[in-house]
Amino acid sequence: MQKEPNERTQPFHLFEQVVEYLVTRIGRGEWQTHEKLPSVRSLAIELKVHRLTVFRAYQELKNRGLVYVRDKAGYYVHPGAGACAPEPTAGAIVPAYSVRNRLSEIHQVPVSYQFSEALIDPNLLPNMYFSDYVKRVFDLYPKVLATYAPVQGDEELRETLCRHFAHIHRFHLSASELLITSGAQQAIDLISRIFLKPMDAVLIERPTYSSAVDIFSQAGAKLVTVDIHPHGYNMDQVEWCMRHYKPRLFYMNPTFHNPTGYTVPAEQRKRLVELAEQYRCLLVDDDTTHDIYFGKEPPPPLFTYDTEGVVLYIRGFSKYVSPGLRIACVACRPPLMKHLLTAKSLTDNGTPLLNQKIFLHYFTSARLQQHLGKLRIALQIRKDVMEEELRDSGWQWSSPGGGLSLWIRLGKGISSPALLERCLEASIAFVPGVICDPLRQMEEWARFSFSFANELQIRAGMRRVLELSRRI
Fold this sequence. Notes:
Layout lengths: L13 H14 L12 H8 L3 H13 L3 E4 L3 E4 L24 H6 L5 E2 L12 H14 L14 H14 L9 E4 L2 H12 L5 E6 L3 H9 L3 E8 L2 E2 L1 H11 L3 E4 L13 H14 L2 E6 L23 E6 L11 E4 L2 H14 L5 H11 L2 H25 L5 E2 L7 E5 L6 H10 L2 E2 L1 E2 L12 E5 L5 H15 L3
Parallel strand pairs: 3-14, 5-6, 5-8, 8-9, 9-10
Antiparallel strand pairs: 1-2, 4-11, 6-7, 10-11, 12-13, 13-16, 15-16
Helix pairs in contact: 1-3, 2-3, 5-12, 7-8, 7-11, 9-10, 13-15
């Protein structure tokens, strides 16, 4: 008989998500001072959670002085509870929602040693060649700037990508089953807005891509964590979570996972699709560094095994072809595509046609394959340099078979947020593990990207990081 996973598989502090939901609505003024709040029973039904969860959330708000209780009459907004929202300056127009992107906040700090951005050093990209392709595009499409692209994306590009996927991954789809997006992150946002409503359960890896956590949290989703390991997932845990929480979707990054670099094996990918079909759970496969491998090629995407239309496959190309073009795509079957098209039309009415045409002609060139081969070698060298500098540190990590970063367990007693604070003062940036953790608990972990800094910067920067860590 299958055992239920231990408590780590539970969504920690679900009541805190309910608290945040209530605080946000009070802060926006949806409930005024002394106004009665929804009953425990009605709010539990609305949010699809247990009544004890709502009760605990109300008790937390009571302890914070945001609500008060009238005997046998329910909960009411306490005078001054609106102070839970930031106080606007006189006459200021304030946003209706509190929006945050923790990763972007780190990226916005100018530093000399950049280990936080999982971007490729511009010096490793074929910048001189791009000008040739830009000129060629204007010769072939002289009116390219005089029109919008189709909302779904340039048909010539979509047909080219379909042929590419059929040749490389052996899965077949039509151009009508591809949507071109302005980067992979836009695809995640579109999926979130179309397929989620407040308090829907979302399975998400622990750790995971920080911005995905912020996007799903902004949608009001109930995050349920699934641990990822060097060997992939505990499939019993995944099945238990699907059966118990009935999630709307499972967001995953199974190929050179961000931030860990782990890759989920093919047999688990097949089983994930089977479970998704059984429990009617959408699988969102976010695949942005598939071609950045240092030895063995990774397994095929989950879409390869999908026969029932349960997989949304996001394929990003921006990082290693041309970040400035912001080109990615979503592959899915028609019933899902029509909803994404509506969301895309309301977002930007289509990715810029010029960007798509430039990408198309570079993507189909022999130069791209030459570029990818050289790029893999250069990135592996930088990874090796970073690992060499860390060899005697006592820190722990699994050397990734691809991707752009190392996921490192720091030395005993070292907090990654505390280390980041000192590093930023020394003009060094990295990503603390807590922002990659949906539970915000992984303080002893950090992500260091080796793709943006050159070898000399990596050596000097990592030595400085280690020096600063010894002072904590």
